[in-house]
Amino acid sequence: MPITTEPTGRQRTPQRLGDRVFSGASTGAGVLILAVLAGVAAFLLVEAWPAVTAPAEDMPGGEGVALYVWPLLFGTLLSALLALAIAAPLSVAIALFITQYAHRRVATTLGYVIDLLAAVPSIIFGLWGVSQLAPLTVDPTGWLAENLGFIPLFAGPASSTGRTMLTVALVLAIMILPINTAVVREAFRQTPRLHEEASWALGATRSEMIRMSVLPFGRSAIIGGSMLGLGRALGETMAVAMVLSTSGGVTFNLISNGNPSTIAANIALQFPESTGIKVNALIASGLVLFAVTLAVNMTARAVINRRREFSGAN
Amino acid sequence: MATRIQVSGLDIHYDRFLAVQDVSMDIEPRQVTALIGPSGCGKSTLLRSLNRMHELVPGARVSGKVVLDGQDLYGPDVDPVRVRRHVGMVFQRPNPFPTMSVYDNVAAGLRLNHRRMPRSEMDGRVERSLRAANLWTEVRDRLHRPGSGLSGGQQQRLCIARAIAVEPDVLLMDEPCSALDPISTQAIEDLILDLKSSYTIVIVTHNMQQAQRVSDTTGFFNLRAAGEPGVLVEMADTTTLFTRPAKQATEDYVSGRFG
Ligand SMILES: Nc1ncnc2c1ncn2[C@@H]1O[C@H](COP(=O)(O)OP(=O)(O)OP(=O)(O)O)[C@@H](O)[C@H]1O
Ligand SMILES: [Mg+2]
């Protein structure tokens, strides 16, 4: 064919001005984002460095930067993973309800309400968590401490204010629910009819059809959506800062007053009163958070993208 | 196992749109019945009303009778799920479960029907179905590899194996070869002729040579007029329908003088 055998070997389509402006602008925007990201990373590295090299006793707590950051990282991971453990199954259930069971009008309304949740500022969740949810958890956690206290998670003593890791996890779960649900719902909605019909034709009930066709198709979206939610929970600041009562230590006890803080909440609470090397210590903790969220988000994207290859019958 | 299907006075709607009107026909056991007709005349719609797949489309409904083995499929306390376990279906595009292995694809229906089937019996049924679908020799060494890794023709035979593994009474096929090359088509046609001794088979096809090669009886569907519902114009044994059709419309269609 004449078109593909041009003597230069490489095809050049003539460029229009509009195309060139548009591609220039979008390339510029892309580069800018990368530059900002690199700038932030560089700032964190440079400002965190003094905390790493400083003598251990200059750090808050007096045992070096690693031991300073570790409880915070632990608190961050614990609250986020706990929130995820609550939100992930819930979002799958909601997505299934919306895409498979609900009447179309109910489904649309519910989908809309869930999306609205995403628009609520986190300070509102914080307010609600500390003034409404926390008091509500006091009695149930008291019961947990009394009856299931042998499980380390519920060792107690139960907090009398309810400002516990458990409450934080619940608030965070509600906050990440919209993004989790949105990703999973989209995947479920896109289950190829072909695969659904394969199940139906074998005489599957709806729940069997969901298990054979919908869930396998949505599996990577469930993982990807969860990790996006996790990323959000890791970085959440205000809600945690307002709700969690912190007094240090690394513990799996979810219902007491003595909780480790999270990196983000700790920075928000400490930064205004910090000077000198203490600021560097906070920034070092920020660097750790940055790295963790970046890794989680990148993994999430990778998992979600992999779904494209898995298109099913070809 | 094979069963007669008696359709009478069947009207099929999509919401308020009447797609197929007043179809009555008898489908004989251990025979291949072909449904032919121009695009959009409701062949697939009719086929999907025979295993109650039609009603899965929101708003879709069926009125009239489909009697299988003396029982009306649309009777008041008939469970559509049970119907579909007796009336298997193969689709136009091969649709093996992409995350399942070849073995699991064939076993999928069995697992729905017999949760506690012993492994050895399951192995036997899977092998038997794959042999019946003329696929065994090609996949025996990769039973535990993904079913979506097979060629299109192999995937379609895998879908046939999956459908017959549950030993249905009837096998419905909606243009099963239209996505396949001539060799794979030949393989499926041979398979249909093999399966005919044990199943009642209904096949929709646009390929009139195929209808003549595989079917014993042929039904010709047509739109009554543009925008009107599809109707069954004529049904007769295949040779008669293609050589001495009773209706002018059939004659025009099978001789290519359509429209
Ligand atoms: N899901 C649906 N919703 C609404 N109308 C539909 C739907 N599926 C099919 N129809 C309509 O029903 C009529 C019959 O369609 P059907 O798919 O049964 O035709 P067909 O004979 O199988 O055509 P083809 O040979 O192209 O497969 C057409 O007018 C079509 O537009
Ligand atoms: Mg069709």
From TrEMBL, chain B:
Pfam families: ABC_tran. Residues 5-248 form the ABC transporter domain. GO terms for biological process: phosphate ion transmembrane transport. Keywords: ATP-binding, Nucleotide-binding, Translocase, Transport. GO terms for cellular component: membrane. Gene3D superfamilies: P-loop containing nucleotide triphosphate hydrolases. This is Phosphate ABC transporter ATP-binding protein. One of its GO terms (molecular function) is ATP binding. PANTHER family: ABC TRANSPORTER I FAMILY MEMBER 17 (PTHR43423:SF1).
